[in-house]
Amino acid sequence: MKKITLLIICCFAVFLTQAQDEKAQAILDEVSTVYDAYSNLKCDFEMIIKLPETEDVETQTGTFYLQGDNYKIELEGTTIVTDTETQWTYLSDVNEVQISEFEPEENGITPSEIFTIYKKDYSYFYNGNEKINGKTFHAIDLTPNDKEQPYFKIRLWINPKTYHINQAQVFDKNGNRYTYTISNLEADLELANNFFSFDIDAYDDIEVIDLR
User: Fold this and answer.
1) Which regions of the chain does DSSP assign to beta strands (E)?
2) Is the pLDDT assigned to residue 74 strictly greater than 90?
3) Would you state the pLDDT for residue 13?
4) Cα 154 from Cα 140, distance rounded (Å)
5) Which of 30, 49, 96, 206 is 20–30 Å from 126 (CA)?
């Protein structure tokens, strides 16, 4: 009898996991449909970094623009922009721009990747509804199939009405926690053709460091 009961429990657990995965897949499909329909987007973001076994918390705020694989990230004192061939990093405090060939970090996650991270090689699991600041969101956990990744889980909080990603948290293997909160999303903006490049001539006495 105990064996039969255990078998029933195991079968139910498998069924529940499959149902959760199907729900997560359906939600992520809706997210993909929404974002793929945008020609570009602009968002404000806050990134909070919590370090393990310490009270230290680092916070950064900024704005980023995304169009296809092109992006621009504006932080306090720093602007990073790429057209997927060249990357410019401008440091306003010293009026310096560093130019390099664009080489995306294989295991890195930038704010611009939050909107496409679920398209990578992950398994997903629906973790129910969770409230953030009084609002209810779908919570979905992503686990990388590549166990060599420096992080073991990413949790997304998705607005059930708009299917916009409101928040993402990255859990790395060193115990660090990176939380991105997205706000003020605007889409289908009229951007100049050279928006995802850096106009050196627009800055007087700028120091150019070409690393290509």
Assistant:
1) 41-50, 57-67, 70-75, 78-82, 86-91, 96-101, 122-132, 135-144, 151-158, 165-172, 177-187, 207-210
2) yes
3) 32
4) 8
5) 49
DSSP 3-state assignment of 184?
strand
**Does residue 24 contact residue 124 with C-beta atoms inside 8 Å?**
yes
Banded pLDDT at 107 (limits 50, 70, 90): low
Contacts of 112 by beta carbon, 8 Å cutoff, 6+ apart = 64, 66, 71, 73
Please tell me whether the overall predicted TM-score, pTM, comes out greater than 0.90 for this model. Answer: no
pLDDT of 9 reads: 34
Sign of torsion over alpha carbons 155, 24, 63, 113: positive
Nearest residue to 126 (alpha-carbon basis) of 14, 17, 52: 17
CA gap 108, 172 in Å, rounded: 11
